[in-house]
UniProtKB/TrEMBL annotation:
Component of the signal recognition particle (SRP) complex, a ribonucleoprotein complex that mediates the cotranslational targeting of secretory and membrane proteins to the endoplasmic reticulum (ER). Binds directly to 7SL RNA. Mediates binding of SRP54 to the SRP complex. This is Signal recognition particle 19 kDa protein. Keywords: Cytoplasm, Nucleus, Ribonucleoprotein, RNA-binding, Signal recognition particle. InterPro entries: Signal_recog_particle_SRP19, SRP19-like_sf. Gene3D superfamilies: Signal recognition particle, SRP19-like subunit. SUPFAM superfamilies: SRP19 (SSF69695). Residues 127-139 have a biased composition (Gly residues). Residues 124-148 are annotated as: Disordered.
């Protein structure tokens, strides 16, 4: 046997700021339409409907966290649709070993923060308002036809 210290786990030698040690966040982790078996990691009452990777990345960068998009598929997702494809890697611990964000120290805190902030994004608010107006106009047109 050799005396060279080769780690059994290849990730042992990686520092916390290496990209492979960053936290992976798939949209399914905070999707309210997924079950726990399908990969949801937070309570359904706190989860949001159909988050996307760009939204998750925007939220993380707004909280001064380093985040990167990766084109990967979530293993538990049988549909693999293009809208929800991908994952986001987020750096929680910096080079000095300190947390990058004072309020976020665990994965669960990260998931809950993402689920709280995504509904407040401008893209989410504009999409919800436009859909309600369209439904109201369509309903009013149908009522007029019935009166004639």
């Amino acid at each position: 046997m050799t005396d060279s210290a080769t780690p059994i786990n290849p990730y042992e030698s990686l520092l916390p700021h290496d990209r492979k040690k960053w936290v992976c966040v798939y949209p399914a982790y905070v999707n309210s339409r997924k079950t726990i078996k399908q990969g949801r990691k937070i309570a359904k009452s706190k989860a949001i409907e159909n988050p996307t990777c760009p939204e998750i990345k925007d939220v993380c960068t707004s909280q001064n966290l380093n985040a990167e998009l990766e084109h990967k598929h979530y293993p538990r997702d049988p549909q693999r649709d293009q809208l929800h494809t991908g994952r986001v890697r987020v750096q929680l611990v910096g080079e000095d070993g300190e947390f990058c964000c004072e309020a976020i120290h665990t994965r669960q805190q990260l998931y809950q923060m993402i689920a709280e902030i995504i509904p407040k994004l401008k893209t989410r608010q504009a999409g919800a308002g436009g859909g309600a107006e369209g439904k109201g106009a369509a309903g009013a047109g149908k009522k007029k036809k019935k009166k004639k």
